[in-house]
Amino acid sequence: MNQNRQQQGEINMKKVLPLVFIFGAIILLILFWSRMTVTIGAGQSGVMFNTFGQGINLEQAALGEGFHFIAPWNKVYVYNVRQKEKAEEMKMLSSNGLEIFIDVSAWYRPLQSKLPNLHKIIGSDYETQIVVPAVRAAARSVIGRYTPEEIYSSKRDIIQDEMYVETKKILDDKYIFLDRMLIRSIVLPPTIKEAIESKLKQEQLALEYKFKIAREAKEAERKIIAANGEASANKIINSSLTDNLLKMRGIEATIKLSESKNAKTVIIGGGKEGLPLILNN
User: Fold this and answer.
1) Are strands 37-40 and 66-69 parallel, antiparallel or unpaired?
2) What is the mean pLDDT of residues 159-177?
3) Is 55 left (phi over 0), alpha (psi -120 to 50) or beta?
4) What is the pLDDT of residue 78?
5) Distance linking the first and last C-alpha atoms of the chain
6) Listing from the earlier edge strand, what are the strands of the sheet with 44-50?
């Protein structure tokens, strides 16, 4: 009897143990589900940290958007890889030592293909550690090469391009892509600004005056050319109008008039130089 009960108990245990394992696995799955899965949102990317491996594997690609299974002992660091904007208001010196306030805006984003490198070498605070210092350093370097007048007026686009080139050179080595650099505003000391605006106004008036003088000179030249042409034409005509030619033209005109159908009276030799007169009735 005891042997039968023992056998029956062993059979029951064999049936229960799988259920226990399954139930335990479900409990563990529920408890560790958040550690075993990760969802990367739109405009994001993830860097895997292998706890029992070599940490950040630079050869392992960053995780793209969507749902991913991971080992519960590993961790994923999520980065925003969309374009960002960083605006900086700075006070700096021009080439002649005058203070200038400039507002600069940088458009940038981390390189997704190099995200593991960025996380391993710099970290998630790359904006404060890299982007801001790079923008400030490039702006000071470029502004220091120009005068306030050049910065305020003629060289603004060139300065903006040079800032972009110098900032990009720094960020490219730090796995950050710089899309554009913009100068949003430049503020000069009031006295300097007024002096520059006055000078620019005078230069504009001088250019306008030169334009008017050039226009009047061209108009006078045109009139001289026209007058010379007209005088030459009159000279040619006068030299070709001989008495015999005029008589011949008069005879030709008389013949044409006499041949017309209109009623007329012809007086032979009554006109100047003996030309006939033709009178209508």
Assistant:
1) antiparallel
2) 94
3) left
4) 92
5) 168
6) 55-56, 44-50, 75-80
The whole-model pTM stands at: 0.59
Q: What is the pLDDT of residue 237?
A: 65
Please count the other Cβ atoms lying within 10 Å of the Cβ belonging to residue 163. Answer: 23
Question: CA Rg, the chain, in Å?
Answer: 48
Mean pLDDT score across all residues of the chain: 77
Q: For residue 79, with 0-12 CB atoms within 10 Å meaning exposed, 13-18 middle and 19 or more buried, which class applies? A: buried
* Residues β-bridged to residue 89: 103
DSSP annotation of 259 reads H
Residue 162 tokens read as: 């040079």
* Residue 111 near residue 135 (C-beta atoms within 8 A): no
Q: Return d(Cα 218, Cα 208) in angstroms, integer.
A: 15
Q: Which of the four pLDDT bands, split at 50, 70 and 90, describes residue 55? A: confident
Strands (DSSP E) along the chain, which ranges?
37-40, 44-50, 55-56, 66-69, 75-80, 84-93, 99-110, 176-187, 265-267, 277-279
Mean pLDDT of 206-224: 74
Q: Do 56 and 116 form a contact (C-beta atoms < 8 A)?
A: yes
Residue type, 281: N
